[in-house]
Specification:
Number of helices: 18
CATH class of the largest domain: Alpha Beta
Helix content: 40-55%
Shape: globular
CATH topology of the largest domain: Rossmann fold
Bound molecules: S-adenosylmethionine
Structural class: alpha/beta
Number of strands: 11
Order of helices and strands: HHEHEHEHEHEHHHHHEHHHEEHEEHHHE
């Protein structure tokens, strides 16, 4: 029997994204910049889904499920065009107005490798059947009545070697959001008050909260400040959202017949980067990766969302290391020229994420190495170039420095590897 409350909530979610396409985007901004992020950077997904080994001259069949106003679809389609990767990216969403924004963005960029399908990801088998090489589902599953069913439906349409990039909310980092949602259910209930009045009430409440309220004590939730109404609505007035802890995600992925390949950015899930006290670290050393990631999440308390990649649980793919000199390092969302100028020449970099600063050591040759990581040169070729100026630097010495740099850059999601095909 259908649950009338569920149908009403489905209707509210759909009408929210029709009235407030989210995130708010102005198509004209495509003339100025490309919004790039995770998941779904082409080289990032090649690494975390295909072990860096996909033949990029083969057509890629990608689906963005709940594509919204188009951030992922635009980024991936643009990356594919820039890298000469054939294939198409399908944008699937319930909301026509959101798709209209994504369509306008694609038009301005002249992207012809995107197709739009209006419908629910729960009906993927009918409206957008696979097999898909890659599925992006960012900020969507946590809004479903049954997120497990949503992820399972998507997983069922993956190619045997395909994979998925997901973002869902993080429970601890969102402390305070659900207090706001509960208060607003009392003073601005959905279905009883016009949406504009509910948004106005949410802003009024946020402005009137004492500093002891959890949202203010959290301090990291700023999405409602200075942004437009869609942001306020999405954060505080959503008719349905839930948040996940690391163990929840492990269960979520497993029940869908999937296997997690990595969280992004991995250092935020790794106590070795976060915990300084050696005795605490020692106690954590032998825990399995999920227990360690769960500790890291509790330790920092600042993960507002979880981004991860997963493949079918029968897929044995593994993430490649740096031992093959033919491996090609790829910087993510940064040019080699920029990295070559901005990295310190040895010493440390300080990475800041959601209020937390983390120091990471980088090797003396970090600048010249990064400046050659243009996504075309292999480790052997980068070494040969560096040797033109540093004849004394043998491959092993170079490799040690590269590994030190890669360990940091991969952990902060600035570098991945690609294998020659
Ligand atoms: C928070 S937005 C995220 C948009 C986009 N993925 C991004 O990260 O920018 C959620 C989107 O999911 C869509 N959505 C919600 N439930 C859906 C469903 N069952 N099937 C397809 N799309 C859905 C909404 O219409 C909305 O555009």
């Amino acid at each position: 029997m259908t649950d009338p409350d569920k149908n009403a909530r489905d209707q509210l979610v759909q009408s929210q994204y029709e009235s407030y396409p989210y995130p708010e985007r102005d198509p004209d901004d495509e003339k100025k910049r490309l919004i790039a992020g995770s998941p779904s950077n082409l080289f990032e997904l090649n690494y975390y889904v295909f072990g860096g080994a996909r033949d990029l001259s083969k057509p890629l069949k990608a689906l963005v499920a709940g594509g919204g106003t188009g951030d992922a679809v635009i980024m991936l389609a643009q990356h594919m065009r820039d890298a000469g990767v054939p294939g198409e990216v399908v944008h699937l969403d319930l909301s026509g107005p959101s798709q209209a924004v994504a369509q306008a963005r694609a038009k301005i960029r002249g992207l012809e490798n995107i197709r739009f399908v209006t419908g629910s990801l729960l009906d993927i088998a009918e409206v957008a059947p696979g097999p898909w090489d890659y599925i992006d589902c960012c900020g969507v599953l946590h809004h479903l009545e049954d997120p497990d069913a949503g992820l399972t439906a998507l997983a069922g349409q993956l190619a045997p070697d395909g994979g998925i990039g997901v973002m869902v909310y993080g429970e601890y980092g969102r402390t305070g959001v659900y207090h706001m949602q509960d208060m607003l259910r009392a003073i601005a209930p959905g279905g009883e008050m016009p949406d504009e009045d509910r948004v106005a009430m949410a802003k009024r409440l946020a402005e009137n909260l004492p500093k002891t309220s959890w949202i203010n004590r959290n301090g990291l939730i700023r999405d409602h400040v200075g942004g437009g109404d869609p942001g306020v609505y999405d954060l505080f007035l959503h008719s349905r959202d839930r948040a996940y802890t690391v163990p929840d995600i492990a269960d979520f992925v497993t029940q869908a017949g999937l296997r997690l390949t990595s969280f992004i950015e991995s250092y935020r899930y790794d106590p070795d980067w976060l915990v300084r006290d050696p005795r605490i670290l020692k106690r954590l050393r032998d825990l399995d990766p999920i227990a360690r990631a769960s500790f890291a999440e509790l330790f920092t308390g600042n993960l507002k969302k979880h981004i991860f990649y997963a493949v079918r649980d029968t897929n044995p793919v593994s993430l490649p290391g740096t031992d093959d000199p033919r491996v090609i390092p790829h910087l993510l969302n940064q040019s080699a020229e920029e990295a070559g100028k901005t990295l310190p020449p040895g010493g440390k970099i300080t990475v800041t994420s959601e209020g937390l600063k983390t120091d990471m050591p980088v090797p003396a040759l970090s600048r010249p190495i990064a400046a050659l990581c243009d996504g075309k040169h292999s480790l052997a070729e980068i070494h040969a170039k560096i040797q033109e100026k540093r004849a004394d630097l043998d491959y092993d010495a170079f490799k040690r420095q590269f590994d030190d740099l890669y360990r940091v850059m991969n952990a902060i999601n600035r570098m991945v590897l690609r294998l020659p095909v």
